[in-house]
């Protein structure tokens, strides 16, 4: 095995060098690490290539990658651009990047790059675009990156980066865009960021930031978008100074645990979008007139009191006003909807559910493009109001963001267009039935300042085609879809009528260069954008996407590494030799063959591993690497070729999941990003094998820790933190995933714990998408489905009716809470935990069944936790709290706890704070506990992985 690993390592290094130079014949570029040592990989081996065109290497027949001017071995120092967008590459970022002293663009977006960001990148003083979003980078942000004085755009979003935001980032004097969203950043927002006078967009949502909201942020003179959703600024208030941000268009502080009052924002003349929902805000809504351009106001899920301000009726562009689940009283003014224009592109959502509104001023007769929701208000019991039932009878949930784009209805004869070769009719062509081949582009608005897109389609199309120097009819928006606050769309760009029916290569490179150079003339309303993919099919499939940065100066090495396939007899022979050698050595671990043939699945943006990669990672699935087992199969601790430690869930023979469940788990996890959900690394779906690869959870499952076999125990404060993390993960599924998701298999063995005992919900094989609202704002309250799940955790209402709802997950989590409190199993010796706890609670003997291993605890906190758990396990779903209410109550209980009970006790201190690693290694000596849960989802080990210093 060691000889096999050494041979693979040598060949991987060789392939790395040759692939970067010649983009050689490798069928799957994700198998090659393209990020090795730049000095040795990119320059020195070049002279050994036989087919290199010495006269003009930039136009050689190598569909490669490099434009190289022979100036010796130091030429790599003159690299200006590295463009690796959407190459499905793996590997790590090498510290040698710091030697590229003239680099301006570093673009590794949408790959599978892991490891940490090298601090040496901070040496590249010329760097303008630093784009790492959409990878698997981890570790902390090096403070040395604050030396990048020329940086314009800093994007690390959608990674696994943790730790604080360095104060040194306040030295990024020219930065306009900081996109750090969807990571695991912690600590305070440095108030020194207020020094960034050129900053336009600050996106820090979906992290674990805490502390106060710095009032100094209001001093950033050009800030247009401040988006901080889904952080934990516990007890913090919204600074009154935020009302002084004169250029702000969007302020989004959703689900940030904020307290205090809603600030007066009437002094922000350009404000379009305000989201302060899912906080703990109190007091009345300011009555001062909001700016006329408001499109979105979301103050739902707070504790706001008083009446609804009349000023909401004088907002001509309003698309959404959500005040749901507050304590508002008084009347609602019909003027809010009376002046809404009629038309397919105009729509208004008024969500006023679950308040104490008792009357309406004016006629209750909104136009058909207005959705009004009043359920849960006293007004719904007023039979004297005509049509009141129409707005009160549905318990609609979520937001209605379904939008149908207008498409051409002109029918043209199919035979005139070669539809099978990427040719199709241009929808808006001035010449009817004009046929051409489009470029296909994935594009996303990361933080637009509207709720509903259709009113802005024309403006967007003008903006985009003007930026690309194209005619308006050359753009077709195929589809759009909201992903939380982001708007994904698929675009087609067609050649101009009168030209050839395809783009020539130079035009393709020009268009792509416009996207990747971020030179669009921005419109604040649409916010920042990102290119997700640039797909070349049909007549474009052979186009070489090499350098798009213009002419090449003498003495410059411009590395533009892009997807390419070239003929290379030498490399093919090496690959063939390696495959034959590995085949010979691994006969004993050949994958199982299925009785029926099947093509392997491919899911965009998700790493696909080969069977042999999985075998190598687990020492041929050695029993020494096995960390769990169940009805589904075994779980192994694996080490990938880049030293990433992972958990590999392998289906055992005879129990392969159906393709539906296997694909469900992969597709669900590939688009879910939250600090309390387990992260997907990839999958293997070769003949006869189904494996899912996850991030490794070194502290096992919650079930392991609650088991009587566990040698360590959790005190009450730690258990509360785990309960809260689990609830937050499920809340994200119910409210922030788009569309929402019902998990359907919440249980203690599906709650995993990382090195700091942070809870992460796992196993989405049984999950179902929640139903979607229709145009009337109504939605079925359930999904009808076959009952699946684990006995003891199943919602009795779901079991009887087959109707799955969000309250089904609440019930299952309630059972987990009872396990946390008692240490009992859901079903044991014929006894049901829910029944036993309810009986003890009613008889006043509850404290006699509390788990004695968790030590001392504040009795009032335990009583509230017991009460919450019992309410979650009510037989009738409508009597159970929502997941948002669960999260809030757990936060309230934690606030009642003495801080010493959570952080400072002897049994907890080793798991929290900066010095946790050494203490955790002490607990790693316990014997691995092989669990046997029904789904076999123990993607964990009690053994702590070895840590390699960065």
CATH superfamily of the domain at 702-923: Transferase(Phosphotransferase) domain 1
* Count of individual helical segments: 17
- What number is the mean pLDDT? 76
CATH topology term of the domain at 702-923: Transferase(Phosphotransferase), domain 1
Number of E strands: 44
Question: How helix-rich are the residues, as a percent range?
Answer: 10-25%
Gross CATH architecture of the domain at 702-923: Orthogonal Bundle
Major β-sheet profile:
13 strands, parallel
- How large, in whole angstroms, is the Cα Rg? 29 Å
What overall form do the CA principal axes indicate? globular
Question: Which structural class should the secondary elements be placed in?
Answer: alpha/beta
Strand content bin = 15-25%
Distance between the termini: 27 Å
Oligomerization category of the chains in this entry: single chain
The CATH class designation of the domain at 702-923 is Mainly Alpha
Low-confidence stretches: 1-75, 395-400, 547-577, 583-600, 770-786, 903-950
Biggest sheet, strands in spatial order? 2-4-6-7-9-11-13-14-15-17-19-21-23
What keywords describe this structure?
20% helix, six-stranded mixed beta sheet, single chain, 950 residues, Phosphorylase Kinase, domain 1, Leucine-rich repeat, LRR (right-handed beta-alpha superhelix), 13-stranded parallel beta sheet, Alpha-Beta Plaits, 44 strands, alpha/beta, disordered C terminus
